[in-house]
Amino acid sequence: MNIDKYINDGQDPKVVEKLLLKLQDMLTSSEDVMYIAVQKKPAVTLFPDSIALTNKRIFLCEFTKLGLTTDFEIIPWAAVKDISFKEDIFGSKFIVIPMQGDVLTVGYIPKTQSRKLYQLASEMLENQKKEQSKEEQDVIDRAPMPPLEPDEEPMPKFEKTNDAEDELTLKLKKLKTLFERQLITQAEYESKKNELLSQL
Description:
Elements: H1 13-24, E1 33-38, E2 50-54, E3 57-64, E4 69-76, E5 80-88, E6 91-98, E7 104-109, H2 111-142, H3 164-180, H4 186-197
Antiparallel strand pairs: 1-2, 2-3, 3-4, 5-6, 6-7
């Protein structure tokens, strides 16, 4: 197992190797480990905590029982609301804020590793948001037109027009129709409505 690319920022090679062995059995076929950060406390720590980022999830790893077992907190990128880090005298705290549940923090991450974690995690979150936004737009675009009332004129289909306001009005009407027909949830409706209204 080649661990060279995971120890460029002063990570403990033994911890990285042990963690990679455990992760091998947990990764999906299209999942790759992008970065590993390892705790470095001021005192000697035989089994430091670590963080692994993959293209699909964040793994917060805590060695327990003298390194014989590992507790994993695993969060898919879609379930991450935000990430941040705070630099202290002895390294940094890396903070993961999930959509639900408690805020998760790992302390004593070396500053270089924490900055790299933040950079890569921010890119993954940005990609996740773009993908989610595209999926929401696809749902709206694929939704069937509602049946017409007897005296109602047909609603025009989406067309690219020069008048952005008319297009926005059509999108809002279509979004409301999706909600009324229970094709999207209240939260999805509010989120997309706010996103569309921000374009005004």
